[in-house]
Amino acid sequence: MISLRNVCKKYGDKDILKGIDLDVQAGSCTVLLGPSGSGKSTLIRCINGLVRPESGEIALAGTAVALHDERNWQQLRTQVGMVFQDYSLFAHLSVMDNMTLVPVRRGLMDKATAQKEALALLHKVGLAYKAQAHPGELSGGQQQRVAIVRALLMRPKAMLFDEPTSALDPEAIGGVLAIMRELAADGMTMIVVTHEMRFAREVSDHIVFMEDGRIVEQGPPADMFERPAHERTRRFFSNIH
Ligand SMILES: Nc1ncnc2c1ncn2[C@@H]1O[C@H](COP(=O)(O)OP(=O)(O)OP(=O)(O)O)[C@@H](O)[C@H]1O
Ligand SMILES: [Mg+2]
């Protein structure tokens, strides 16, 4: 579903991504791990066009993104959903308007359809009763659940999560992870940056370990947790066990 070849990104004259090759199978859940500053956020932001790499190849569902074609990037943005640590809801809009604004404005669906589908999604995550509330009236966990279904309303081909539970208290974390588990079980293609090791181990199909802008090692969770091949990966896992 997602394929990256030799993706490179610089900030100023500093190399941040140093040639990333990555394949994400349709319907799989990939967890991205690595120390702070290793490039995890930069990498997943490249996959929805929030960050533009200087070189390399990115393809979604077999369609290559022409790196210098703005329309290609915009298309990618509508096809790949993204959820951030800080929810990024529009504070001045109701939950319903937060969800429907972009798909309606982009002409992906008419307002009535968008509202109907938004309500169904909110219902699924137990938040239909908050449809007319503003984000400030919701807890962090509730806001994050809205951010997830807001992305889902766009019917994305893949979903990216950048530390979606890092700002939440333990109880709220459980609710958000439960939705992500369900999404994975439903066959959504996902890439997740997270420190939730139980999620990584139990839900993911594939773990990618990055350091200093490179993928050091990747593989199924059992191999990565039990018998990492690289010394650096071993050290990382020994610190979190
Ligand atoms: N907009 C930016 N301008 C300049 N440098 C940046 C920018 N964003 C990230 N960087 C640098 O790129 C490197 C990778 O950052 P990135 O945020 O991708 O790391 P990360 O693995 O997500 O870290 P963390 O676990 O702390 O979130 C870091 O050295 C960071 O300082
Ligand atoms: Mg990050």
Q: Looking at the structure, what is the overall shape?
A: globular
Q: How far do the termini sit from each other?
A: 31 Å
Judged by helices, strands and strand pairing, the structural class is alpha/beta
Radius of gyration, CA atoms, in whole angstroms = 18 Å
- Which CATH class? Alpha Beta
Secondary structure blueprint with pairings:
Layout: E1 2-11, E2 14-24, E3 29-33, H1 40-47, E4 55-60, E5 63-64, H2 70-79, E6 80-83, H3 95-105, H4 111-124, H5 140-153, E7 158-162, H6 170-185, E8 189-193, H7 197-203, E9 206-211, E10 214-219, H8 221-226, H9 231-240
Parallel strand pairs: 3-8, 3-9, 6-7, 7-8
Antiparallel strand pairs: 1-2, 1-4, 4-5, 9-10
Helix pairs in contact: 3-4, 3-5, 4-5, 5-6
The protein binds adenosine-5'-triphosphate (ATP) and magnesium ion.
What attributes does this structure have?
alpha/beta, 241 residues, binds adenosine-5'-triphosphate, Rossmann fold, six-stranded mixed sheet, 25% strand, four-stranded antiparallel sheet, binds magnesium ion, 9 helices, 40% helix
